Amino acid sequence: MAKSMSLLLGSGCPPCWRVRITLEEKLQGYRRKMLSLQAGEHKSPEVLEINPRGQLPAFKHGDNVLNESMAACLYLENRYPSKGTRLIPQTAVEQALAYQRMFEGITLNDKLNALVYYEWFVPEEERCDNESPLKRRTEVLVAELQLWEKYLQKVEPGSYLAGSFSLADVTVFPSIAYAFRFGLSVERYPKLARYYSLLKGRASIKASWPPYWMESPRGYGVLRDL
Amino acid sequence: MAKSMSLLLGSGCPPCWRVRITLEEKLQGYRRKMLSLQAGEHKSPEVLEINPRGQLPAFKHGDNVLNESMAACLYLENRYPSKGTRLIPQTAVEQALAYQRMFEGITLNDKLNALVYYEWFVPEEERCDNESPLKRRTEVLVAELQLWEKYLQKVEPGSYLAGSFSLADVTVFPSIAYAFRFGLSVERYPKLARYYSLLKGRASIKASWPPYWMESPRGYGVLRDL
């Protein structure tokens, strides 16, 4: 079945990474191809044919198209619950927590993007002359990261966001990895750092680590002072 | 079981409405309380105790907290698949489409909010003197609405986003209703209008229609010229 699956992804794109981790946890033998976001390959006919939004990931299983990362993850889990790792917990308590953290993970990623890619998302003619947008985006992101630090305080060491490893971790980990790559302080966010350390050695995450992050292990330090 | 469920919601808040529709489709007898977003009641201790983000919806099932609207919907469907309407289709084709449209529905709602609530989301000191932000947000929303118009062209009359009524409709309908309330043209978006007409008479949607929309059936015409 994995042979009929193909994934187009961009290196270091957190939503793409979510689908990659889910596939690694559950199936082997799917096809994948890394495209360059920098070179604008997400706007190529190859992508547009699958994803009219011209975004990555672009995922197909036979004729079924799932371009929204979490849609792809939920679909894979729902179709193949007992293949590889079960990614939606079975108890009501863990299940509620997994769903809740998954969707909060979208917010975390949005807030990271809003600061790190401010100049990408806001065209020059809309940027005002004062410091307010960057200052506000920084405050919003700090409050968000502190919320996750608090959530992780309640998690036992060695445990995951919703008990066992789940789609909550699949969703959230790429954003956390990305924050540390962009300079987030291990000292000021110790619980996030502990969580990062726990996850980064997991087989599915090692296998899917963004290739260009290996070549240049550190990103620029835009989050260094947070 | 519904007796141990309570929902705090704001009138006309599309994410809140999603949870309301899901509950109406599946269960009876849950507790709910409408709060005023205008009066800032989403920042009250009553909400903050459940949702540290100070946002609505805030939903509890026993001790399980689900404040992200789609997390609550997925949880309810997953815990009670055979209660009331089944909201995740069972065939792979419909399931893929339902998940895909659900998550695209978040994007649709974000783009609506970005235009309709521009002044709410962007503080005065960050608004530039030119027309660019409103113009760009309008273009982005028009492109988004045209994409949905195209999706709905492929849907048979009388059919839903993913075949049978599903969480895709639960997610997307409140945003469509909201767009028409804010003046979207029935003539220029005929497939969206047909979809709106089909859904608005559904029992779960009628039962959960925002109360203040009944008092004042039309919103202001901010989307009239789109």
From TrEMBL, chains A, B:
One MF term in the entry's GO annotations: glutathione transferase activity
Which stretches make up the GST C-terminal domain? Answer: 91-218
One Pfam family from the UniProt entry?
A: GST_N_2
GO BP, one annotated term: glutathione metabolic process
Domain GST N-terminal, first and last residues per copy: 3-84
What domain of life does the native source organism fall in? Answer: Eukaryota
PROSITE patterns linked: GST_CTER, GST_NTER
Gene3D superfamilies with a match to the protein in the record: 1.20.1050.10, Glutaredoxin
Give me the Gene Ontology terms describing cellular component.
mitochondrion
Please give the name of this protein. Glutathione S-transferase A
